[in-house]
Design brief:
The complex is a heterodimer of chains A (456) and B (197). Chain A has 456 residues and is an alpha+beta fold. Chain A is rod-shaped, with a radius of gyration of 41 Å. Chain A has 13 helices and 7 strands. Chain B has one domain: 3-Layer(aba) Sandwich (Rossmann fold), CATH 3.40.50. Helices cover 41% and strands 15% of the residues of chain B. Chain B is α/β, with parallel strands linked by helices. Chain B is globular, with a radius of gyration of 19 Å. Chain B starts with a helix and ends with a helix. The relative contact order of chain B is 0.18. Classes of the chains: A alpha+beta (456), B alpha/beta (197). Chains A and B meet through α2, α4, α5 and α7 of A and α1, α2 and α3 of B.
Chain lengths: 456, 197
């Protein structure tokens, strides 16, 4: 497809090249008018009329050479696709020089090659500074146009004739007419001013384009750096939060040990008492303390995992979910014989809770439903959490798993935490959302996951 | 640095093109020319025509008018139209664009000029060759036109600067044609006037 495009551009270039070469035939009347104008200006000694003719000369040859040079530049693409390659520019030089030979042979204009090589040299020098991007050919064509106009005025500077510039038929006629009635002072001045002006404009235009590109590159670099900095900040905040939480949980263990010790002590003291009710109370307190200890261990040690039924997980999550004062209908559908998951209960429950809390928040005061479906699918356990809240916009879908991304001014670490936890358990999570209709979070966990299969 | 190679090559070729003609230009042998003719060679009425259809013929016509000569300017005149004139001045200079406008090939132009020169000789009138373009039209076709006319010319006025200067001087010497070489276009007035007064 890309190669085909190159051939199309190349053919367009060839067309322009041929058209440029044939253009003098189509501009025959203009040429005749210019000759009449020069003759009349000589007979009437009218330098104004000669000056108008010189503008016509510049216009005519600018159009011709623009077609030839730009056509050759496009045509070079057939031989080499990349503009910055030496082969491309070599083809361009060869094509334009051959075209000049042919042009001279066809129209006997006696064009000298000094101007041609000066144009090529300047053009190839300036093109180095044109950014190789979307508008390259457009910018190139503007610079080429300015350079050709400048070079046509250079052809009309009589002082440069001795160096071989401007010896073609029409330029020679204009300069000789000027020599007759102003001793070349008019064209030495006017043509030099126009030549210099257009050359300077071409150079300034190129530099402006170059500097603008540089500025855009710098801005892009700054944006990237800013994004990296933001990500680092989020990671730092996250790690601090995690560190503090771990310390806090660790500190919880100390009073718990004290409570446990004291309960043991009281139990020993009460052993003498045959009161079964007290024994029952102490057993229950002891069980609760042990459960709390396990929970703390699971929070502190990410890789502590154990076999947990899905129903237990959901029961735990739903019991902690606060749906008071909200018109939200929460339903859980679970098929029988769902395999037991091997997970870090606290972390996995927290992940499910995050998803449910997000679903609750998406209702923003209005009513709706949240459905949890659990089933076996393609050898995996599929946990689907559906809601008909505000949902997620299509543009945001690819960003929701990134750290720090949030559409609600929150920390933006909730969903990234969910994804990390599920992936750490060998599972995957995907999302489909049609805003205000249905948002579906699909968690797939592998069946029969043994301890060795879970990432450590 | 690699990206500057194409531009550098072009500038290098440009320098060669500028320097080469200066180096190869040979100085022609000294030639004894007249500042102007010692005695008139032609009578009025004068006809100015062009050999090669370049616009310089208009310059000579303008000069002749300023010199108050009885002159007609007919760049496309034929040999059969010369009965009314006592002197013919032919301005040499090949112009591709000029030739296109008269709808004539170069061969036809050469034949027209040859016929005019022969007719002038037959009528025993004066033939003045004027070559104003100098280096601007130092091409083979202009030289060819000169070569067709020089043997029948009575006087030659040309520019000092000319790529084919030595060839022109050699031909002028060979056919014993009195010649005047000028530096500037305006300097042509005196020698041209001397051909009539």
């Amino acid at each position: 497809m890309k190669a085909k495009k190159h051939y199309v551009v190349g053919l367009l270039g060839l067309g322009m090249l041929i058209y440029g070469g044939m253009l003098p035939y189509f501009l025959d009347r203009m040429t005749a008018f210019m000759i009449i104008q020069i003759n009349e200006s000589i007979i009437d000694r009218d330098s104004g009329q000669l000056l108008i003719t010189s503008f016509m000369y510049v216009a005519k040859y600018t159009v011709i050479f623009f077609f030839i040079y730009f056509g050759a530049f496009l045509f070079s693409r057939v031989f080499c696709q990349r503009v910055e390659m030496l082969r491309y520019l070599g083809c361009f030089i060869i094509l334009t020089t051959s075209s000049m030979f042919l042009f001279n042979g066809l129209h006997h204009e006696n064009l000298t090659f000094q101007t041609h090589f000066l144009t090529l040299g300047l053009l190839l020098l300036l093109q180095v500074y044109i950014p190789k991007q979307k508008y390259y050919y457009f910018i190139f064509s503007i610079i080429l146009l300015l350079l050709i106009i400048s070079m046509q005025w250079l052809q009309l500077i009589p002082a440069l004739s001795s160096f071989g510039f401007g010896l073609n038929d029409m330029a020679a006629s204009i300069k000789m007419a000027d020599a007759y009635f102003t001793d070349n002072s008019l064209f030495n001045t006017i043509a030099t001013i126009f030549f210099a002006a257009f050359l300077v404009i071409a150079i300034i235009f190129t530099l402006l384009i170059f500097l603008q590109r540089k500025q855009m590159d710098t801005l892009k670099r700054y944006e990237l750096q800013e994004e990296e900095l933001k990500e680092t900040k989020i990671a730092l905040v996250e790690s601090k939060v995690y560190e503090e939480m771990t310390t806090l949980v660790h500190d919880l263990k100390t009073p718990l040990v004290t409570v446990e010790g004291l309960i043991s002590l009281i139990e020993m003291q009460m052993k003498t008492s045959p009161d079964g009710m007290w024994r029952n109370y102490f057993n229950r307190i002891n069980q609760s303390v042990n459960k709390m200890k396990d929970m703390i261990s699971e929070i502190m040690h990410e890789n502590t995992k154990k076999a947990t039924p899905v129903s237990e997980l959901l029961e735990y999550v739903v019991s902690h979910l606060n749906l008071d004062d909200q018109a939200i209908k929460l339903e859980v559908f679970m098929v029988e014989n769902v395999p037991i998951l091997y997970v870090n209960k606290i972390r996995f429950s927290r992940a499910i809770a995050n998803l449910l809390e997000n679903a609750v928040c998406s209702f923003t005061g209005s009513g709706g439903f949240i459905r949890i479906n659990v089933k076996r699918d393609k050898g995996q356990v599929l946990i689907q959490i559906e809601d008909n809240g505000s949902g997620i916009r299509q543009d945001d879908l690819q960003h929701i798993w990134k750290d720090g991304f949030s559409t609600t001014n929150s920390t933006g670490i909730g969903l990234s935490f969910v994804k990390r936890v599920i992936e750490n358990h060998g599972g995957t999570i995907t999302v489909n959302s049609r805003p205000n209709l249905l948002t579906q979070m699909n968690i797939r966990m592998p069946e029969e996951v043994s301890e060795s299969q879970v990432s450590v | 640095m690699k990206k500057y190679i194409p531009a550098t090559i072009c500038f290098f070729i440009l320098i060669l093109f500028v320097i080469a003609p200066q180096q190869t230009a040979t100085k022609s042998k000294p030639y004894a020319s007249y500042p102007n003719l010692p005695a008139p060679i032609g009578d009025q009425k004068l006809l100015i025509t062009s050999a090669g259809q370049a616009v310089e013929a208009s310059i000579l016509y303008s000069i002749a008018e300023h010199l108050h000569l009885d002159v007609d300017y007919r760049p496309r005149v034929l040999a059969s139209d010369l009965y009314d004139y006592n002197t013919v001045a032919v301005v040499i200079g090949y112009s591709a664009n000029g030739m296109t406008q008269v709808n004539r090939t170069f061969e036809e132009e050469v034949n027209r000029i040859k016929a005019i020169a022969e007719e002038v000789e037959n009528q025993e009138n004066a033939l003045i060759l004027v070559h104003l373009s100098g280096n601007y039209r130092s091409d083979r076709k202009s030289l060819q036109l000169f070569e067709q006319l020089v043997q029948r010319a009575d006087y030659y006025i040309g520019m000092k600067e000319n790529k084919y200067g030595s060839k022109i001087k050699h031909a002028l010497k060979q056919f014993r044609v009195p010649a005047t070489f000028v530096s500037e276009l305006d300097d042509i007035r005196v020698p041209f006037n001397s051909a009539f007064r």
